[in-house]
C-alpha cells in the first residue's frame, strides 16, 4: 500500500467531514448523510483491490 493512498483517504475524510458539518448546520441533513455515504463508498472502492489481495494471500497460506 502506498503512502499516496493513505493521503487520499485522509483528504477525502477531511473533505467529507467539513462538507457534512456545513450541510448539517444549514439544515440539509439528508444531503450530509449522502455525502458521508459517497465518501465511504469512494474509499471502499479504492481499498477493495488490497482487501482482495489480502484474502488471496490468506487462502494461499492455508492451502496445502
TrEMBL record:
<keyword id="KW-1133">Transmembrane helix</keyword>
<dbReference type="Pfam" id="PF06686">
    <property type="entry name" value="SpoIIIAC"/>
</dbReference>
<dbReference type="InterPro" id="IPR009570">
    <property type="entry name" value="Spore_III_AC"/>
</dbReference>
<protein>
    <submittedName>
        <fullName>Stage III sporulation protein AC</fullName>
    </submittedName>
</protein>
<feature type="transmembrane region" description="Helical">
    <location>
        <begin position="32"/>
        <end position="51"/>
    </location>
</feature>
<dbReference type="InterPro" id="IPR025664">
    <property type="entry name" value="Spore_III_AC/AD"/>
</dbReference>
<keyword id="KW-0812">Transmembrane</keyword>
<keyword id="KW-0472">Membrane</keyword>
<feature type="transmembrane region" description="Helical">
    <location>
        <begin position="6"/>
        <end position="23"/>
    </location>
</feature>
Amino acid at each position: 500500500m502506498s503512502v499516496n493512498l493513505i493521503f487520499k483517504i485522509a483528504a477525502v475524510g477531511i473533505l467529507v467531514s467539513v462538507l457534512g458539518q456545513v450541510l448539517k448546520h444549514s439544515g440539509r441533513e439528508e444531503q450530509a448523510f449522502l455525502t458521508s455515504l459517497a465518501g465511504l463508498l469512494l474509499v471502499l472502492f479504492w481499498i477493495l483491490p488490497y482487501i482482495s489481495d489480502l484474502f488471496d494471500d490468506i487462502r494461499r497460506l492455508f492451502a496445502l
